Amino acid sequence: MTTTDQSSLRSAKPALVFLHYFGGAAKSWQWLIDELSHDHDCLALDLPGFGGSEPLVDLSIETMAKNVIGQVKRQYPDRAFILVGHSMGGKIAMKVAHRLNLDENLQRLLLLAPSPPTIERMPDEEKKRMLIHPNEKQALVTVDKGTIQKLSGERLQTAVETQLAVDNGTWQWWLNEGMRESIADHAKNIHIPVDLIVSSDDPAIKTEMTEEETIPNLPKNSKVIWTSGIGHLMQLENPIWLAITIGKLLSPAIN
User: Fold this and answer.
1) Contact (Cβ atoms closer than 8 angstroms) between residue 82 and residue 107
2) What is the pLDDT of residues 57-77, one digit of tens each?
């Protein structure tokens, strides 16, 4: 197949739009996108205040979602797309999906270890530690505590540098307010297919949180894929496995 043929095949499918985790950035997805871009057009976004992007003055899940919609519409005004949200990005993606319930271009929602649509509970001591920002030592601790397959080299460097680059007001907002803002009523009323990929070994979004706070607040026909042996930063820990899993999950819908 020629390069032109491959490009035409990709453009006939919905694009994949990625929303990163708290402390991440658009470039956190680069290894996963390397694996998926042969078959899919991919767009990774920097959420406001992350990756060097301009922070929002009025911070909420709602304003974050509106910003995402604006970014996607500028890039893909008439293109079908699938929204992929990880952790914090998963919670924002749920809000985006609810706001776009009547928009036929959004065809599917894929959630990777999402922050629950209710409240993401964090031990007080852990929250106190994470509020020390920017701090390279604490960034390294956060990465180590959140992973099972330990990072090294460029992936570790990226995971640390993206944390340090977060606007401090946005950092404080998520830990103090964003992770506690409930959008459960909206998440339950998403009208597109929803898929969930989670690990029973995730040290950040634990099994109990997913089973008690996330799954009951998603549409009843949502599909859940459980794995193990991988931590919270799955797109950095094992992008090849994640790409294969996503490919298998989406192929009935887009092939």
Assistant:
1) yes
2) 999 999 999 999 999 999 999
Strands 15-19 and 81-86: parallel
Q: Which two tokens mark 86?
A: 């990880």
Token digits for 13?
């499918």
The amino acid at 170:
T
SS (H, E, C) the chain: CCHHHHHHHHHHCCEEEEECCCCCCHHHHHHHHHHHCCCCCEEEECCCCCCCCCCCCCCCHHHHHHHHHHHHHHHCCCCCEEEEEECHHHHHHHHHHHHCCCCCCEEEEEEECCCCCCCCCCCHHHHHHHCCCCCHHHHHHHHHHHCCCCCCHHHHHHHHHHHHCCCHHHHHHHHHCHHHCCCHHHHHCCCCCEEEEEECCCCCCCHHHHHHHHHHHCCCCCEEEEECCCCCCHHHHCHHHHHHHHHHHHHHHHC
The maximal CA–CA distance of the chain, rounded, in angstroms, is 55
For residue 124, give the CATH number of its domain. Answer: 3.40.50.1820
Rounded CA-CA distance 179/202 in Å is 17
Summarised one tens digit per residue, pLDDT across range 139-177 is: 999 999 999 999 999 999 999 999 999 999 999 999 999
For the chain, the domain total comes to 1
Contact 22, 120 (CB under 8 A): no
Please say if the pLDDT value at position 252 is more than 80.
Answer: no
